[in-house]
Design goal:
The structure holds two protein chains of two kinds.
Chain A: H1 2-20, H2 25-45, H3 67-98
Chain B: H1 2-13, H2 16-20, H3 25-51, E1 56-63, E2 68-74, H4 76-99, H5 106-125, H6 129-147, H7 154-185, H8 190-195, H9 197-202, H10 206-220, H11 229-232, H12 238-244, H13 250-259, H14 261-264, H15 268-291, H16 295-316, H17 319-350, H18 366-380, H19 386-400, H20 409-433, H21 450-468, H22 470-473, H23 475-486, H24 504-521, H25 523-532, H26 538-560, H27 565-586, H28 601-619, H29 624-644, H30 648-671, H31 683-707, H32 715-726, H33 731-739, H34 741-763, H35 768-776, H36 789-812, H37 820-838, H38 840-846, H39 851-871, E3 881-886, E4 890-895, H40 896-931, H41 939-942
Helix pairs in contact in B: 1-3, 1-5, 3-4, 3-5, 4-5, 4-12, 4-17, 4-21, 4-23, 5-6, 6-7, 7-10, 10-13, 12-17, 13-16, 15-16, 15-20, 16-17, 16-20, 17-18, 17-19, 17-21, 17-23, 18-20, 18-21, 19-20, 19-21, 19-24, 20-24, 27-31, 28-29, 29-30, 30-37, 30-40, 32-33, 33-34, 34-39, 34-40, 36-37, 37-38, ...
The chains are: A mainly alpha, B mainly alpha.
Amino acid sequence: MELLVAAGIGLLTAVGLYLVLRPHSFTMIVGTVFLSYAVNLFLFAMGRLTLDRPPLVDAGATSYADPLPQALVLTAIVISFGMTALAVVLALRGFLETGSDRVDGGRPDPEPAPTDRAGEAP
Amino acid sequence: MRIALIALLPLLGALLPPLAIRAGRNACTAVTAAVTVAALVLLAADAPAVFDGEAVRTTADWVPQLGLSFSFFLDGLGLFFAALILGIGLLIIVYARFYLDRAEPIGKFFAYLLLFQGAMTGIVVSDNVLLLVVFWELTSLSSFLLIGWWHQAPEGRQGARMALVVTGGGGLLLMAGMLLLGHAAGSFDLTDILRRGDVVRASPLYLPILLLVLGGAFTKSAQVPFHFWLPHAMAAPTPVSAYLHSATMVKAGVFLLARLWPVLAGTEIWTLIVTPVGLVTMLVGAWIALLKTDLKAILAYSTVSHLGLMTMLLGFGTPAAALACIFHILNHATFKAALFMSAGIVDHEAGSRDIRRLGGLLWLMPIAATLSLVAAASMAGVPLLNGFLSKEMMLEAAAHASYAGNAWILGTLATVGALLSVAYSARYAIGVFLGPRRSDYPHAPHDPPAGMWGPVAVLVVPVIAIGLMPQFFAGPIVELAASATVGPAPLPDVTLALWHGITPALLMSLAAFAGGAVLYAVRTSLARLVARAPRIEAKAVFDGGVAILVAACRRVIEGLHTDSLPRYLAVITATIVVVGAAGFFAGTHAAGAREELAVTLPAIVAFVLLASTSLAALVVHRQRLLTLVLTSVAGLIVSLAFLQFSAPDLALTQIAVEVVATILLLLALNLLPRTSPAEPGLSRKLRDGVIAAAGGLGAAGLAFAVMTRDAATISGFHVARALPEGGGANVVNVILVDFRGFDTFGEIIVLVIAALAVVALLDTALKGAAARRLDTLRREPKSADVHPTVLVVVTRALLPLALTVGAYIFLRGHNQPGGGFIAGLVVAIALIMQTMASGTDWTADRRRVDAHVLLGAGVLIAGATGLGAVLLGRPFLTSAFAHVHLPLVGDIELATAMLFDTGVFLAVVGTVVLALARIARVERRADRTAVSGMPAPSRRGEA
């Protein structure tokens, strides 16, 4: 099971890194979302994997999953939402301000050809 | 503490003039003057002790590890300089009130002036040499503001920049020198360093210390070859020039040489460097002063020349010469401040500072002209005035000094310097005030108001008084300052007197007058001759040097600093990968011994799903909507993993955040382009692919290595105490709201800041270029059924249910999976669903509480809970709890941690709702344009 989880973490990291290195803001943000999945899982895994022993104190239980990484990751998930929100809005504002959503300093992309429906007036 | 206040009072007082200006210019001047007078009174209160030979000292630690302390002390030299700085400062304040135009913001001017005054006073009363450097740089900064006062004019800006570069750069040299000095002497306190001169001179660091300190002093005091900044600083208003170049700023360098004289002087190398630099500066300054036609330029170069004179005297290294230097500092400050101020009067009243357009002013402005003539005569060294006395002492010292074994060269060149000084002084006085009246002055000249000539008169009084009775008026303070300068060395038994008999100095002085008269007579043909000779323009050299430096910096920066975010990220990621790989290959790789969990079929299915969606996202990432869908599938599998591995809280949080984040990205995608264009070229994809694969491999390997090893954890503590001390069975929640409550408090503040940043970014997007682009965004036609009835009905019916679920999750959170974070997300989703189904307007009309209020309330409640514990004498955020039995509901537990959790809950709801509502508002603006019926014109298409 550990191997599967580790492979999952590696896969999410690789996909996240590749997307983060793309030249457009939206793809980059999606990349950070993948990266935060990977990082959160990684941090969680630092408490080792445990089955069916949630850290809820119970007289009958003898051992629990490590609650400390869970508490760390819980706030990390919420904070990464805050970060995504800020990054999205920054990207949006940058796009509205300059007309380009490129983050690699290249020239704005040419306007995509309008589809048939886009030209219709309501 | 009183001595510290002498310097701190003007610094703090700098806050007052900008406020006092509301009460008028006179009130503002009065307040500024009052600050200076208060500092003078404090100084006077300590003066008797200094005269009695007591050490007046105060100290407070600042950064003791660095040897930096707030130490101040007052001795003869400090008292002498502080009195000059504050006394002349007071006169300048009065003068500036009348000099500056009514339209000038005089409150700001006085603030800068007091800042400078405080910094300057700080230099002369600092005991700690590092503190001295701090004040030293502060004078460079504040003089920058003053010199650049008329920053509308290019000369003002250039002059200020040049002064800052030269003196600020010198300050850096000085800082290095002081650090070495403190190291060599074993203390950063001047009082200690002054006593350890022998140790410093014997140290191998002596030469670097000397060169660095001289670098600081020579730049500040405008010694050749750094003299060029001073004349360009004349772009400042005249009160500033009068202040900076008579008693302060440029004297700081001389002060420093005098201050460290007992430590650094007395060696052969000192004399070899300092004496010729001073001598050359004296001659060069005087020579240029003779050729200039602008009054302030003449005075500026004359100042350079006199500074050279003082430096040369200190360079001689004898106590007699040091005494002459101190005496000349006093005399120069009085006559030069008077001359600068009267140059300002001439400029003000006659409308020109060009000596070729002036003349005969004695008959038109008799008071100001008489005062100027007396001061100019003192500058020339005419007997019965103070300038004569110190010049005699200088010539006497030069006559007895020898340079590199040559006994007559210093005396001869010093006489030449005096001769030049006679010539330019005569040219100044005669050219401006004597001679016939003219008919073509730019303004009709007349005497200025008393407020302008009054300060000049106050300065001319000591010029005459000291000239007549030097021992009575200046003897005690000069001797006090000089004995403080020379330190342990005995001061020669000199009485300041007008007549010493027929001495070599008197003969040299007479020769200087005769030569000066001849030079004045041939000045026109001389000027013609010089005009033909080639010249080095110092400003051009300086500008050229700066241009080369700027170009070099630009090349380096342009190489390092590109516009490309992916390039930075690639460099950072590649570095991490390389460092990680280095660690990996340097270590051992034994397999972990921890027993692994068995692989189950659902786990394999989940992994295959995760792998296929992630890889699919890689392939289709240019189709943004599709990528988003795939991303949320991956997120869902992550939350299943949390659930599988005993983390129900995390699973709940992940699912809730997934929903919110997807909505957020969808909203953004509505305005952003739907697809990314194809990237040309394979090489970049390949490069990124290699970096990403290496990073993924590293993360997987690291995770696997850790998971297959056993480790000790500190969580036993939390599990054991969660119930008895935190009052909750859900250990994760107890950690969040109790054990690590302070962390959580910080985290909700981060969330709130992110939300406020979102608001700031989007609210301003409804104006300017962003708003215009919103109007022209080409949008796809909307579905005819914007708010489907089924959705509206279902969400409205669901709202109470969703809120109840939120409340339930919140209440049980302390003992079961749940809590403030998750409940906040659930409630936020319920509210957002209303917006999506029924529209922004519908929800806005029904919203009673602004999301801002939720944010504020959340942080305040959480903070207040923590403070409650402090009020009860416990550490911040200590929780208390009690079990209460309610009929029907049963046994419930009330903990202060729950109150804290309420704060978390409110902050989360506020953040999510605010962020999404603001994006929705921006969209509505775009919608309104689309709904107004016109196909949006595409401006981008036209361009």
